[in-house]
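Researcher: Next sequence.
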Amino acid sequence: MTTTQNSTQDGAGPLPAEAGQVSEKEARQVAEAAREAAWDRPSFGKELFLGRFRLDLINPWPRSDPADVERAETFLAELGAYLRSEVDGAAIERDASIPDEVFHGLARLGAFGMKIDRKYGGLGLSNLHYCRALMLVGSVSPAIGALLSAHQSIGVPQPLKMFGTDEQKQRFLPRLAAGEVSAFLLTEPDVGSDPARLATTAEPTADGAGYRLNGVKLWATNGTVATLLVVMARVPAADGRRGGITAFVVDGDSEGITVERRNAFVGLRGLENSLTRFHDVFVPKENVIGGEGKGLKIALTTLNTGRLSLPAMCVGAGKWSLNVAREWAADRVQWGRPVGEHEAVAQKLAFIAATTYGMETMLDLCCLLADDDRNDIRIEAALVKLYASEMAWKIADELIQIRGGRGYETADSLAARGERPAAVEQIMRDLRINRIFEGSTEIMHLLIAREAVDAHLSVAGDIIDPDAGLGRKAKAGARAGAFYAKWLPTLAVGKGQRPGAYAEFGPLAGHLRQVERSSRKLARSTFYAMSRWQGKMERKQAFLGRVVDIGAELFAMSAVCLRAYAEKDTRPENIELADLFCRQARIRVEQLFTALWDNTDSVDVAAAKRILAGRYAGLEEGVLTPPADAPWVARWSPGPSTTPDVRRRIPPRG
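Model: Next structure:
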């Protein structure tokens, strides 16, 4: 095994030499090596950030295959009937547990195989109908939604679908489609969004038959109930061996695996989430997914479509919130009028309705694009995850405000005095994790920003790279000169400046003209920032976050206009919703553009340095703070577990 470093200082036990306390540069290199570099298919989102409003990439509105729709609607009807009659979401919340019989019922329906191809025993649903199923499930129990999402979107089925061998698919997918549960294990106690520090090791055995896994994984959703795991571990490099972070399918009942904790959270109380230890766990070489060193690339590629499941839950929450807000605001009378007629509440209702329509439309478009597989949706999927998780949280906050004291009261407490048990405070708790799950908002901003400026870095990256020699810089300068000489003039004028442009979209044409103009303005702002800050731009995270947020709003505006136009004959009211959403979004975009340059970013950064240095520690006086007798990050060291195993095994169906 390779030598270790920082075994004491970092508090994570002995680590492989490739891991531990890596430099910022090394961490960036690991992340950069894992991303998909090629753009072999068009991307509406990428073009939008470059100031090119390629409406033709998403217009006309994509359609699902009629045969797929018919099969999916039959399943959704059966699923809805089962959820209404057999699943008690309130009991799952109270007991913090999904009953065994619910696992069995979902398995009978095929819910654990929604994304698995039919030839392996799954339902083979499209991304669109899979997300609609999650939306339906999540409206009854967000914990069940998280169970099914983690199982299929990031657990074993999706990586195997994209990177697995035929033998692996035949061996594992039928088990999972039949109801066995899978989990994805990447995060470690001291490793979150910085995979360069991954410390779990997979040491090749001397006979070449497989690997021995050692390490600890934190926050594994489904980890306490999963029988098949995707585990990310570091294979040490050696002569003739690439090594690197590698993805393995691991049998959850293998000797040496201990589920040491079931983690408890402020929301999603039925979530089966684990702290899991691996001690000399043997994994056969046939269980490597995609080859050694491909683990992070597999994880990131899987998430391109896997991220769509989380906004599905957010859209479901928006629909639920709209129903509660509408009925309550129409029924509750104050000062002689329903509260929904008072302007202060009316604004909140309009925001909830418009934003729910916007989130749903973004998600539907992303799913349809993923289903037809003609576009690269890595930016679009990331945008809808970011946007929906942030907006759903705001919707929940506004719903609580509309409900007043009853919004802060539990459903059980409401029911105890004979009132409708609307679990508004629960939806707030359940939604909060979505801003962290599968990439926090801050990480999503940086990930999307990196993809948004990819064209610039492709032609000019060496100019701002401190490690590039004069020869590389000169070549980059020539490439950049040719690229910008052709690109920059396109940002000066465009279709959005013609009064009659997009006239076929009727009353929504003006919004599309605004999107086109704003897209070019966003590209100009990004170019100016790169010219101004060059290599330091990656540290301008607040600026990059606003750039991404503007892009998200423009993508959402484009989507709602297209959808409303496509449905104008069957759902004419959607024209009104699209117009409402775009009017609200335009105000947000204008504020974001202003904040690109008029902000307190540099002052905030300077203040944070003083705060970290303790200059204002006196401000903390006068309260009792958390005790300092335990570390912020729990320490661990390799070896056998010293705690009882708390895994839960669902008994076979009768």
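Model: The longest helix spans residues 343-372. The mean pLDDT is 92.
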